[in-house]
Amino acid sequence: MLRSRLEPLYERFLQWQVKHIPRHVAVIQDGNRRFAREQGLDTALGHRLGADATEQVLDWACELGVRHITLYTFSTENFRRNKDELASLFALFQEKFLAILTDERVHKNHIRVQMIGDRSLLPDDLLETIEAAEKATLHYTNYYLNIALAYGGRNEIVHAARLILGEVKHGTLDPGTISTTTVESHLNRGAPIPPVDLIIRTGNDCRTSNFLPWLANGHESAVYFCAPYWPAFRRIDLLRAMRVYDQRMLLKERAGRRS
Predict the structure, then answer these.
(1) CATH number, domain at 241?
(2) Residue 113: which of 98, 91, 126, 92 has the closest Cα?
(3) Which of 28, 59, 82, 94 could serve as a FRET partner for 71 with CA atoms 20 to 30 Å apart?
(4) Is 205 an active-site residue?
């Protein structure tokens, strides 16, 4: 009872503390299976509860003014999971991408949705649904939601290198002009993704797991590791993560004034 009264006050206090809003937040949604196991639930239900948490967190992020969100939903390493779990996950992904077509929040808030990752690894029916969701939100520019599916950071850089080499080979790109901007422009074929300001990882595992190495590690993004499994992630946890980013920005501002 006391906790339920104090949490809203604490939320408001945290929000008051955060003066700098990160432009781009990347989230490693970890712990669906462990949450399900500890609750005595089926793994598929754990993933579904995680998907529900995702929708809630996206609402919070929009309310707080975060314009770009990238979700680490399924890695290239996740293909090692058993066939039943993969089938359940792909069905859930397809359901959620299909829902985007008619989701009032997406169209009211003008949220552009796109997938990043290796499309060649996904089933055809899932890929068709993803592309339909991308097409339906193609011209939105208020918010950007990047879903990392079949994603691996090193794999992403390898693909970018192949594209760049192909352009050099065909004479459309001068190798002497290749820069960090060139690489970034080849990392993703959809809407440009800005550098990551803040990475959040749930599930009490302190590593970034090959997630957006160029846009996050290369730009020294703030990182927040927290204990709750993804289905149990709260608005308080999001605000605590944003406070870490805010503190980093304050330190940079102070350092700038001293120099």
Answers:
(1) 3.40.1180.10
(2) 98
(3) 82
(4) no
The catalytically annotated residue of 30, 197, 237, 246 is 30
Say whether pLDDT at 235 is over 70: yes
Catalytic residue among 32, 42, 78, 205: 78
How far is the C-alpha of 233 from the C-alpha of 26, rounded, in Å? 15
Q: Which tokens hold the place of 213?
A: 């190495």
* CB neighbour list of residue 15: distance below 8 Å, 6 or more residues apart: 64, 239
The domain in which residue 236 lies consists of 23-71+82-153+196-247
Count of domains forming the chain: 1
Name the residue among 78, 86, 84 with its Cα closest to residue 123.
Answer: 86
Q: Per the domain annotation, does 103 fall within a domain?
A: yes
Q: Is position 91 within any domain?
A: yes
In-domain check, residue 161 = no
Model pLDDT, residue 39: 95
Q: Is the pLDDT at 189 greater than 80, yes or no?
A: no
- Evaluate whether residue 114 is within a structural domain: yes
Tokens coding 12: 């408001």
DSSP result, 218-238: GGT-EEEE-SS-GGG--HHHH
Query: What confidence score (pLDDT) does residue 187 get?
Result: 85
Distance of CA 152 to the CA centre of its chain: 13
Distances (CA, A) of 129 to 12, 51, 79, 215, 230: 39, 17, 20, 27, 25
Q: Is 84 a catalytic residue?
A: no
